[in-house]
Amino acid sequence: MKIKSIKKISYNGDVYNLRIKDGNDINNNYFANNLCVSNCHRAKAAQIQTIMKRTYGYADYRIGMSGTYPSPNTSEFLAIEAVTGPIVIKVKAKELMEKGLIANVKIKALLLQYDDKEFAENVYTIKKYGGGKRAFDIEQEYVRNSEKRKIFISKLVNKFNHNSLVLFHNTQYGTDLYDYCRSNIVEKDFYYIDGSTPAKKRSHILKQMKNTDDGRVKVLFGSFGVLSTGVSVPALKNVVFTQSFKSPQIILQSIGRILRLHKNKKDSFAIVFDLVDQFHTSYKTILYNHYLVRKKDMYVKEEYPHQELKVVL
Question: Strand, helix or coil at 166?
C-alpha cells in the first residue's frame, strides 16, 4: 500500500488524514511509524484486514478504531479483532457529552398516529404469513403517499430556529418533501443533496449550511447515503429521520451530524426527531418495530436522553 496523499487536519496535535491506495512494489511503499485505522464505519472486516496486514513490519504501532463497531462475537467482529487486537476501551455518547466534548443531544421519537386499523391489520396478516419484505414495502408506500404526514413534516420544519438537516432514503420522497416545504415556507432557505448532486454543488451547499451570521435559518434535505457520514456542519442543531432504518451504523452516524460543538448549542440540546409510523396501536408492524430496535439497541444503549411523543395526524 502507498500513501496517496497526506493532509494535516485541524487539531492541536500531530494528527493526519492519510489516503491510502494499493501499490505494486512493496519496496516503494511508505508508512508512518504509527498507523491508526479510524472511522471505518462502513468498511467490512476484509477491507480493514487488508490495511492492517500490509503494515506488518512497516508500522511500529497499529491501532484500529471505529465509532460503530460490529456486534460482539459476530464474524465481522472477530475478523477485525484478529488484526487489531481486543477492544481496549469503549466510550458512550453520554460520557462524551458530560465531558463537553460533543454537543448535548436529545432524542424525540414522534409516534405518528394514523388510526388506520384496517390497513394495520392487513399488513400484520401479510407479515404473519411470511411476507415481511412485501409488508415493509407496503408500509413505506403508505408513508410516502400520506399527505397528512407531509404537512406535519412541513410544520415541524417551520418551527426550527437554527440550521437543520432532514434525512430521507427514497430520493423521490426526499424531493417531494423538499419541494413542498420550499413552496410553503418562505422565511427559510432550503437546500437539497442526494447521490446525483455534483461534488462542487455539494461543497457550496455545505458551506452555506455552516453560515449562521446572515439571520436566515437554513434547512438541508439530504439522503442518508450521502449525508449520514463524513459531513461536518457544526451549525446543525436539528436532524429529522423521515424514513425508518434498522442499521445501527446509519442511525448512529446520522446522529453524529449534530454532535459538533457550536455556539447555538452551548446552553441547549441538539434534537433528533425520529418519525415513527404507528398505523394503529393494536398492531406493531414493521416500521414501528424498526423503532423499537433503534430505541433498545442504540438510544438506550448509548444513554441518549429519550422522549416519546404521540402525534395524531
Answer: strand
Among the listed residues 150, 127, 149, 129, the one whose alpha carbon sits nearest the alpha carbon of residue 138: 127
Residue 307, pLDDT score? 95
Sequence spans of domains, the chain: 2-90, 94-312
Find where cell 444513554 sits: 303
Would you list the DSSP string of 238-306?
EEEE-S----HHHHHHHHGGG-S--GGGTTS-EEEEEEEEESBTTB--HHHHHHHHHIIIIIITTT--E
* pLDDT reported for residue 11: 47
More confident position, 205 or 33: 205
Q: Specify the range with the lowest mean pLDDT, choosing from 60-74, 101-115, 221-235.
A: 60-74
Per the prediction, the chain carries an average pLDDT of 84
- Provide the 8-state DSSP code for 109: E
156 phi and psi, to 5 degrees? Answer: -65, -50
Amino acid at 136: F
Distances (CA, A) of 190 to 44, 150, 196, 205, 223: 35, 16, 17, 10, 14
Task: Calculate the alpha carbon distances from 227 to 46, 108, 251, 264 in Å.
Answer: 24, 20, 11, 21
* Residue partners of 225: CB distance under 8 A and separation at least 6: 169, 194, 195
Judge whether 285 and 132 are in contact, CB under 8 Å: no
The topology under which CATH files domain 94-312 is Rossmann fold (3.40.50)
Distance CA 25, CA 210 (A): 43
Give the whole-angstrom CA distance, residue 234 versus residue 236: 6
| CA 167 and chain centroid, separation | 8
Q: Are strands 16-21 and 2-8 parallel, antiparallel or unpaired?
A: antiparallel
At 34, which amino acid appears?
N
pTM for this one?
A: 0.82
Q: Tens digit of pLDDT for each residue in 42-57?
A: 667 787 777 777 767 6
Cα-trace Rg, the chain: 22
